[in-house]
């Protein structure tokens, strides 16, 4: 039997409006290389040895489809599917409130990042077990510009310390709970979970260098990119 410490619960948030994708259907339900986006995401967490339990957060209108996907692909780690909130932060909070009481660490992940690998999940969880708080991300590859509302370049930031943050973002549960309560009390709402811990100060969030393949399905051109990456993995025997 597995020891109870650590007990890592993945909170997979899939309750967004998919506005930038367009269309009626949630982007998490769209097929890529023959499987719904959320199915691909959940397969990675099912296969990751460091993950003990999974809570999925979804829109009310998607619940039946999500249950269907979980049943048909046989995802045994998913213990609950709960309704999300109006913002990503609220959806994460719904997931956290429903995590099993023995949870010691939370691995918060976007349902819309189906290319996350078992290796990245394992490495960022290990980093958080050591440091209490960790995120995965990649170094910015392009030269960046700050552009004014009039469309004029204002300046070129030094990119040597700039990264794009991905998920999973992994935290000791007690720490994350404290950060979440403080942000809620201050009525602050953030697009990622690191910011909750960053704003408290005192606890450094470690960055684990992950993979450029861990893209978020955000706009329509992301779908063929994800499909091409998955087909390459299939050809290389990684799937
Ligand atoms: N109220 C929300 C908003 C976002 N998310 C989830 O958070 C992840 C990252 O969000 P994003 O890509 O911004 O998704 P959407 O909010 O759906 O996108 P958009 O801004 O285009 O509507 C996604 O897996 C999304 O489903 C969520 O669970 N609940
Ligand atoms: C959490 C996140 O995936 C980190 O990259 C991201 O912030 C989600 O929201 P966004 O509004 O698409 O940046």
TrEMBL record:
Family per similarity comment: Belongs to the IspD/TarI cytidylyltransferase family. IspD subfamily.
Described purpose of this protein according to its UniProt entry: Catalyzes the formation of 4-diphosphocytidyl-2-C-methyl-D-erythritol from CTP and 2-C-methyl-D-erythritol 4-phosphate (MEP).
Highest taxon above the source species: Bacteria
InterPro entries: IspD (IPR001228), IspD/TarI (IPR034683), IspD/TarI_cytidylyltransf_bact (IPR050088), Nucleotide-diphossugar_trans (IPR029044)
Keywords from the UniProt entry: Isoprene biosynthesis, Nucleotidyltransferase, Transferase
Gene3D superfamilies, A to Z: Spore Coat Polysaccharide Biosynthesis Protein SpsA, Chain A
EC numbers for this chain: 2.7.7.60
Sites marked Positions MEP for the nucleophilic attack: 159, 216
Protein name from the UniProt record: 2-C-methyl-D-erythritol 4-phosphate cytidylyltransferase
GO BP annotations listed: isopentenyl diphosphate biosynthetic process, methylerythritol 4-phosphate pathway
Alphabetized Pfam families for the sequence: IspD
Organismal lineage: Bacteria, Bacillati, Bacillota, Clostridia, Eubacteriales
